[in-house]
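To: structure subgroup
Subject: Chain for Friday's discussion

All,

I'm putting the inputs and outputs inline so they're searchable in the archive.
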Amino acid sequence: MSAIPAGLWAVASDLRSAEQARQWQRSASAAAAFTVRRWPHQERDGLAVQQQLHGSDHWSASHGRADLALLAGAQAVIAGIRSLPVAAYRQAFPQLLVGASTHSMEEAQAAVDGGAHFLVFGPVWDTPEKSGILAPRGLQSLEEVVALGLPVVAIGGIEDPSQIQQLQEVGAHAAAVLRVARETDKLQALVDAWK
């Protein structure tokens, strides 16, 4: 199995076609990894999106769709709170690394117990995506999850290079961005800060 990349991960969301994926890919090309979530209603469009992003030679993961990940040649699937549990993905798709999107120590521990290869944890800071849904978890909670021993990808409200240093200080393996992935210059600044 491939290594889980450190550095900046770009999160693609709500892409509806291979052409939209190509446009997104241009802005996010500096990232070490791509992840795809919120799939089109037509599965063939979802596969086209995943294939476009995987075809970029970036390490890639699919949120909740191991079938599309496998068909497109992605390296991982990320289990969410509405998807199959980690252990089910591990059993049904042994070819893939399995990550888990987590928002609390309890969820993170359950993912570790289920055999996750890596964790996505957040929101670390306030983000419009989770406004009114999830309060920021903060760096202390992130550090506690890092102590579980798996690679942890921090997510949520990451926009400034100074945040990258803070994430590295508490042991985050990588940082995932959604909004910044569409802003080439901002993303590059975060990539540079990770080095």
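Points worth raising on Friday:
Residues 143 and 163 are 14 Å apart (CA to CA).
The helical segments are 18-28, 43-54, 66-72, 86-92, 105-113, 138-146, 161-169, 184-194.

D.
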